[in-house]
Amino acid sequence: MPNVQSAIMRLRDDQDLQKKYKGKVALLCHSASIDENYKHSLEIFIEIFKERVIKVFGPQHGFVTDVQDNMIESDHFVHPYFKIPIYSLYSETRVPTDEMLEDIDHLFVDLQDVGTRIYTYIYTLTHLLEKCATKDIEVIILDRPNPVGLNKVEGNILDTNFASFVGRHPLPVRHGLTMGEVALMHQKYWINDKCNLSVIKVGGLERSMNFYDTRLPFVNP
Question: What is this structure's pTM?
Fold first, then answer.
């Protein structure tokens, strides 16, 4: 059994927590969005929220992480099994459009990051936070462990004069944060207009743990 519970596991197992989200639901995820049994978060969401799951978003490399080459954009499509629209946030746009966000009440983010400033998942997240600041949408981060650890920071801090999609914010190369912590830093230090944000933390996670200590399965994101 895992020593910790990723946030998707906590949501899956807590019916009282599930009842907090009464509206229509969307999910930003990829192929590494799994529970301890390798069950995908979208499957779990459909079991919990059923027809209230109306949209899915995918980051760079695609919803199913099949676009491995760097800087290759992926297309929007309708999932052939679930019949739900999948919107790519690494397509003609890096920011969700007004149309993409229509009718969403709760937008969950479940992305396995790798803990480095160069990886773009945290910037897909912060673009989303900025866009949702203008919307009546609750953003909920389903947090996950940082696979290179939470108690060490390394490398230079980005000079934001050179900001890009591989470095938007003043972070060191190895930032020592979870996705949820990046989101909270973004809201506190890097923008003025805040969105309705909450973070479901990883249960039992200690900053001294490495990923092996969690006993969670790891899928290369």
Answer: 0.95
